[in-house]
Each structure stands twice: as C-alpha cells, then as structure tokens.
Amino acid sequence: MRKIRYAVVGSGWRSLFYGRIAKALPERFELAALGCRTEEKAARMREEYGLPAVAGEAAVEAAKPDFIVSAVNKQGMCQTVRHWLAKGYPVLSETPAALSMEELAALWQLRRAGAKVQVAEQYRWYPVYRAMLGLVRSGLLGQPVSAYLSAMHDYHAAGMLRGLLGLGREEMRLTGCTFAVPVTATRTRTEVLTAGEVVLKEQRHVLFEYESGCSAVYDFMSDQYHSLIRPRTLRLRGTRGELDDRTVCWLNDKNLPERAELDVAEDPATGEVLSVAFQGRTLYAPPFGPCGLPEDETAIAQMLQGMARFIETGEELYPLADALEDAYTAFLMASPAVTPGAGLDGPAGEGMAPGWYQRRTGPRPWK
C-alpha cells in the first residue's frame, strides 16, 4: 500500500491530531509539511512537537503532498479551501465546511465543476459510534423512529442524527431555544479545575421533525466536551427495540424482550478502543490494527484514508453533499443565548414562548 502523504495548512490545536496520526502509523501516513504563517511559529512547532513545520505556501508546495488538509480557524476555512483548490490541489477540509449559505453553495459549484474536496467529519467513525451505527443498520431494533443526542455539537450532531435514523437530506422542521445555565467548571482543554467556580454556560435544545416521520432531540451544553460531570448520551428508538448508550433492549424472533450490553474493550494505558462486540459478534476492530490512537485520531485517520481513496476512485467516505447539508442544518439550529424576546427569524410562533424559534428547511443546491 502506498503511503498517504498530506500537508496540513494551519498550526492550531486541531493540526496536531494529524501529526500524531503520522507518528503512530508511519507505514501508512506521512505528514509532508505543516504550513505555518511565520518562521517563528514553524520553529516552535518543530521544537515542541517534532513536526515538519514550514513557513509559507511555497514551502508547503515544495513538500509535494498528495492533498492539502485545511485546519485553519472556522472563519478562514472556506477561503483557505477555495484557495488551495484553485492551485489544483485536492483538499480535505476540517469542519465546518463554511459559515454561510453563499460559501456552501460556492463549494458545491466547485465540486460539480470537478474540484476534489471533502470534509473531515469524524464522529461516525469513532469506534463506539461506528459499532452503534452498525448495530442499528443490522435491523435488530427494527425501523428507527426517534433519537436523543447529547454528545456533540451543531453540524456533528446533525450528521450523527441522520446516520442513526438512516436519513438522507430530507426536509425537516426545527424548534429550539438556548438557555443560560449555571454549572461548576471542572476542566478546560488543558487543565483540571478544582476551585468549584460556578459559571454560566449555554445549553441548547432543538427538536427535529423529519419529513419521513422520524424525530430527534438535540441537547448540548457548551462545556460538554471537557466537563467531568457531563457524560455523553445517545439514545436510538426503533420499532423493535432501543439503544440507550451501551445498553440494548430488543424483541427476539418470538417477540419476547431481551437485554444486553455492548462489550467495549479498551487499552488501559492509551484509552484506545481495541474492540466493540455484541453477544459475541464483533462490531468494531481497529481499522489499522492496535496502534495506541484514541478515538478522535482513529476516526480522523479513516478520513485521511478515505480522502486518498476519493482522489483515486471518486468514492466518497462522507459525501460533500452530506457535509454541506449538516453545515446548513447547523445554521438552522443556531440561536442567541436566552434573552427576553424573539428568535433569529423574528417573533416566536403562535403559542410559543419568547426566546423559542421554529425553522424549516428551504431550497439548497446540493439537495
């Protein structure tokens, strides 16, 4: 198998994931260059992380990568993607693909014109989530009818809900509101907090009603990724059973109820998920073999492999149309922090309290 060589443009926290993948799986992946804006920043990345950091576009191009990974900030993401596409490079974009309908539509037009662009939406490829999705697709729970998700935000959640419910890019109605909630701060991205300080965080609730008749509830608090007291929760209800995190309840062939747990084996030293099984049947095994990577890097590595396959064959691991749909859905989900008055679309609907909003999908070119 030919080694996949990629260059990352951007030197923030997210870019480090791509460096760790290359170090853990050097026979499969090579970080050809990490593009920084200044030589000072490049020198710091080389010294602190041992990454092949360079300054300027010319140095990135000189590394001759197979494709570019755009890992800049959200505000500059779409512009960076379009810039490197214009140079003739395939581009794997970090999420979200864009921050406006105009940018989403422009990306779709570029894709239709032949541009090789994909989005690194990784959550469906997390080991346990991948196993859950496989279990749902097996039909054990019957036809999916509703879901509850409190685990990931915005466009990530939109894609996961579509995956759980087996939905395409269908029409839907959203009803939601954002509340300011006092919580105790427990951790940031870099440190554990023990002062017991109570701070205000945003908690967003959104009800999805899909054209197919399925429904979903999104519940996310802004500190959930890092909080030590906010577990991630996922629930999927089907006509013949229910998945409640790692607990599965279903009807057997005699229509009698059964109950069992997903069996998740982890490496105690690294946290790597080594297997996920259900009643003796393997639902997940490490796609690259045990390599010490945690769930996020494991999922991103699959996106890198999917990008290489897309360039070679045109097969999409996560279709761009889905990425645009999920980013668009995040626009519909957005609301201000709770305040007296109306939502973004004007006065609240009839019978709705101030602060709540209701939106429906509209025309979009990738539909």
UniProtKB/TrEMBL annotation:
Keywords of this entry: Oxidoreductase
Pfam family, one: GFO_IDH_MocA
Location of the region described as Disordered in the Swiss-Prot/TrEMBL record: 344-367
Domain Gfo/Idh/MocA-like oxidoreductase N-terminal: 4-119
Top-level lineage group: Bacteria
A GO term for molecular function: nucleotide binding
Record-linked PANTHER family: CONSERVED EXPRESSED OXIDOREDUCTASE (EUROFUNG), CONSERVED EXPRESSED OXIDOREDUCTASE (EUROFUNG)-RELATED
Family: Belongs to the Gfo/Idh/MocA family.
Protein name: Gfo/Idh/MocA family oxidoreductase
Organism lineage: Bacteria, Bacillati, Bacillota, Clostridia, Eubacteriales
